[in-house]
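Annex B, item 7. Sequence and structure tokens for protein A, then protein B.
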Amino acid sequence: MQQGVILVRYYKREWDYPRQLNDLRMLARRQALQITTEIVEKIGQLHPLRESDGLNQLLRLSREQTVQQVLVWEVTRLGRSTDEIRSIITELTTLGVNIYIHNLRIDTLVNGQFSPAARLLVMVLDELTHMELSKLRERLSICKKRDRPSSTEHDADQQPVSPAYLTKYPAVVLNLRAGISLRKTARLCHVSINTVRKVNDCLFRQLY
């Protein structure tokens, strides 16, 4: 029987994390996966990888080869930035540890090999990381404009969204590129429909 870890990381105002934990426990039972460790961690708005006790514990268990699988609710729980998420996925799969991302229904390893879905996910994360670095100056400029009071809320909504906006929502990007509808993407990623529309508009502009 394979041994696994359940990883639940939640924000201060996120009250449904017990349901996430219970759903992942049920999933483990269906897969006949022996859960040896449950990592439950509250995270703040700014919580880099090096300061996360939960992720560091997960990395330690993986490096010790004591677990073969990790169950996580969504990909954004693996890090605070696209680069951190990519780093976690790459290291764990290299160590032979499969990550099951529940909201995307993705296994990073299939028959011991990097799965096509995981390759696509890493490609998206690579693209977003590159965009994040190359657009840093533009993002700072947008933040300054955002701090200025706008004339009306309507005018603010009409302002174009920077491509760097995509770096905040990697799971939304992946769902949209997989052809999942806007409303279903909003439900799976726990974001508003307006956020999904903005991400979708930004992706559309990149094509033209």
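Protein B:
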Amino acid sequence: MNPQITRRQLLAGAGAMSALAMFPKLAFAQQGSATTAIYPGAWEEAYRGIVAEALRETHGIDLQMQPLFAVDQIAQARAARGNPSFDTFVLDPGPRVMAIENGLVDIFDASRLESSAHLEPGMIDEHGVPVAAQFVGIAYNPNRFDTPPTDWADLFEEPYVSRLGLTGFQTTFGTVSIIEMAKAFGGTEENVEPFFKELQRILPHVATIGTPASMPSLFQQGQCDIMYTNTQTVGTLRARGVDIEFVRPSSGVITFFTTMHIARGAHEVANAYKYIDTVLSTPVQQQLMQAPYFMAPVNSEVTLADDLPLSDMSEIADMIQHDWSVINPRRAEWIERFNREVAS
């Protein structure tokens, strides 16, 4: 059958083509959505304000966000049994290993990311891609000490220990910091016993003990003047007018990545890749690095902020990283022991 095209149909078609030429974004109007798990708080706020808008402008995709901490993402995905409520995970190293070991992430296809060319070699693997770097070291109030600390062992001696804010293994930055403290006293990634030995000695002297989430506020209030944390927290406090500086320990800056992964059984895989590619794009990474979010980029095309502890993304390869397949089996015991010993 060869239907006749009427003059009205021809004019309607021409009008539609003219509209698309004048307003090219209309071509994306029916591209659907992607659903991502996202960390509550600053991550959700940043992604709602920057990433979601960029994804809509570039691809016409609506970003739906489910605010979930990493352990909750994994719990939900396991319970879903291959029918997850979100298309992408966002995870720190420990939960990332758990998600992979539990078969919750799909094989990652780097060829679907235009931005992959701007990442350092080896960053992308078969499981996912980093979207933000974390840099961990020592933060202190420069007005309270004549000289800054230079290494992890310094935190256990005066004048620093009596102004130390102490927190445990609940977070990634807390865990890796304590591992490096243990190493300063002869420990290893598997053996943090030297830290616990020193902990008993200093407990009567530390300024405060708190949860990781409370430590920035305790520092801002002056209840402690030295803590172990990441550059994102330092930037946030400095933007509030707090006197704070970041120290690179003599043993080296710790780094780890927050990564994204395609959930196995994801419903909107194509849109999920476009979402991740948008996160990794140079303009978005540049915006996320600025106040008030201070998220360290992984895109090598980004002009790095002066207060980050590197001048080129290639320097990450020389920073201290940890093997979470070794840490994960021990971490629950470390958390329980730390909580017990500081409470006794």
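Comment on protein B: The radius of gyration is 24 Å.
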